[in-house]
Design the sequence.
């Protein structure tokens, strides 16, 4: 049984509208989470907001948003003022712009979501929008209120559904030029390039989700399991330290190729 969608609304293209639902494409539900405890009592520790000057707790009804305009000088915004800036894109993904599929750089992508029809009657409208984007190799750009802010979103056809990406705001993406400008633009020696290409070929494999497994999470689960069973926790293996030693790149590449070949034979 599929989980209950976290968002429901409408997908609209000109006069074509269909009801849709959406779920985040990623989850942190399987992540190991900890509570903060009082070591002496074993009780959970609760966090709360306190007045930074008086040190007294502040009731939730007395908390307001403030924008700092100077040292300890804030402009206060009430909830109704914040709600007033929300646009009409809370429940409708109104598509009016399409761009080439490969023209949005990955650095703009924020969070992926699965978008799918929420009513069998609307499946045909959903499918024709999806297939037309796939046919023209385009993605749609729209706006939508998600996570309490209006965001630019990109819709990309995928299999029988659509992946909706929230896009980062312009001020969130740094210009790469200051970081890359000082790198030497000269091409490496052909022989060196050939050795690295060979090393890449030897290491190329089909994609598998196991490649992005979390070894830290696995070790944490081992420690937790040992403590549940009153066994000694497994000790972490010491990692060899690598200093900033001067090496000959060609020698290092040849040794790397030799190691890769030996590993493959094993």
Sequence:
């Amino acid at each position: 049984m599929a989980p209950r969608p976290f968002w429901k609304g409408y997908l609209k293209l000109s006069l074509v509208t269909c009801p849709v639902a959406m779920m985040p494409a990623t989850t942190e539900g399987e992540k190991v989470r900890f509570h903060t405890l009082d070591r002496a009592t074993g009780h959970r520790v609760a966090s709360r907001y306190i007045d930074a000057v008086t040190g007294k707790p502040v009731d939730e009804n007395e908390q307001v948003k403030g924008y700092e305009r100077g040292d300890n000088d804030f402009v206060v915004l009430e909830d109704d003022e914040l709600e007033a800036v929300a646009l009409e894109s809370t429940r409708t993904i109104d598509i009016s712009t399409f761009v080439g599929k490969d023209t949005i750089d990955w650095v703009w992508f924020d969070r992926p979501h699965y978008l799918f029809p929420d009513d069998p009657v609307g499946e045909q409208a959903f499918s024709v929008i999806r297939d037309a984007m796939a046919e023209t190799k385009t993605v749609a750009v729209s706006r939508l209120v998600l996570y309490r802010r209006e965001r630019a979103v990109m819709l990309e056809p995928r299999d029988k559904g659509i992946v909706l990406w929230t896009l980062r705001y312009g001020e969130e993406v740094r210009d790469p030029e200051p970081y890359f400008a000082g790198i030497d633009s000269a091409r490496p020696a052909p022989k060196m390039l050939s050795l690295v290409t060979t090393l890449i070929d030897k290491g190329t494999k089909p994609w598998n989700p196991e490649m992005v497994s979390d070894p830290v999470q696995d070790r944490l689960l081992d420690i937790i399991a040992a403590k549940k069973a009153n066994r000694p926790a497994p000790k972490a293996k010491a990692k060899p330290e690598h200093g900033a030693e001067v090496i000959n790149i060609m020698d290092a590449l040849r040794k790397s190729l030799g190691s890769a070949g030996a590993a493959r034979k094993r």
In short: The chain has two domains: 7-29+85-170, 186-265. The chain has a mean pLDDT of 83.
